[in-house]
Structure prediction request, 378 residues.
Amino acid sequence: MEFSSSRELKSLGLKKVIRHFKQCFWRSLKEVGACVNSGKKDTESLGFVGMLKHIRVVPLAAESLGVRSMCTYIETPDVRILLDAGVSLCPNRFGLPPHPEEIKAIDRCRRKIVEAAEKAEIATLSHYHFDHHTPSYEDWLCNWTAATETARQIYEEKTVLTKNPKEKINYSQRRRGWVFQKTGGKFAKKLVIADEKTFVFGKSTRVRFSEPVFHGPENSALGWVLMTVIECQDEKFMFAPDVQGPMCPHTLGLIIREKPQLIMIGGPPLYLAGFKVNEKYIQAGLKNLEKIVETVPCTILEHHILRDGKWREKAKNVFEKAHRHRHEILTAAEFLTEKNLFLEARRKRLFVENPPSKEFEKWMRKSKATKKHVKPPI
Prediction:
């Protein structure tokens, strides 16, 4: 449908005109998603704010896709990279184990990660939590892993750029880092400590890692993580997992100085406010997020923040700030033009509205240890 004059617009009526433009908008978004998901290298036609031409960014697993993860596939003309190749489910939320829909989601995401791993030459590991790297033991409750085989599929013959497992690391992550070196890391072509290092690929791609920054507020008991900046020609994508806003002012400064066109960032854990995380840290994370969306044209907002069913309402000021600057905030699902799932946040409702089978209920009654070694019937 084309309009040749304002008279034609009036004759059609305002509602029809609005409906027409909505249809055009959603059609264009679907074309973008089709191009991203088809694996086309030519991203020149991808039109919404924040899309890059030389750096292809494809989220593979995330809270908006139904699981705990920030795993993302990156492709430039010079290199293919798998960022934080882990995925998990919360074993107990609202007093309930994962719903069958969550099990289906982690199975889908695991398959996507394995497929991307077949293409990637590089894998990165920002820190040693299991939603950010893949362990080498059997676990069908939380991590959807077969013993040894799942990690082999992901890390075999890769150069793995890792967080230093000995410095600026808490006890549990130090232990997991040691285990990774002895198990999944053994499949890698080589393990390279990435803290504060720059790696150059081909003629135009630079991959830079930050100094270790806090996993949340300063002196967090959860330790430190690495942020990653990927540059190709005049474009810049930043990956900031588990900074939780960021809550830490120093981390905010590092991000603002980078001025990426596109960032994927972990927001504050709203669902833990006043329980496991002090409310002042949550508010600091939201305030700092406002400063980021002022600066960055497109923000993919993910991870802890999306585990709260009212996250969008609680982050209202962040969205208003982005809108004021004509900047975009998207979830990973929205970036892919897919439907938001938020399955963990909806777990209690899922069990009410979509009760599992009798066989699944039997599996639910097994001990946690048993559930890890027995695949749920879905």
Observations:
- The two ends are 46 Å apart (CA to CA).
- The first strand starts at residue 56 and ends at 59.
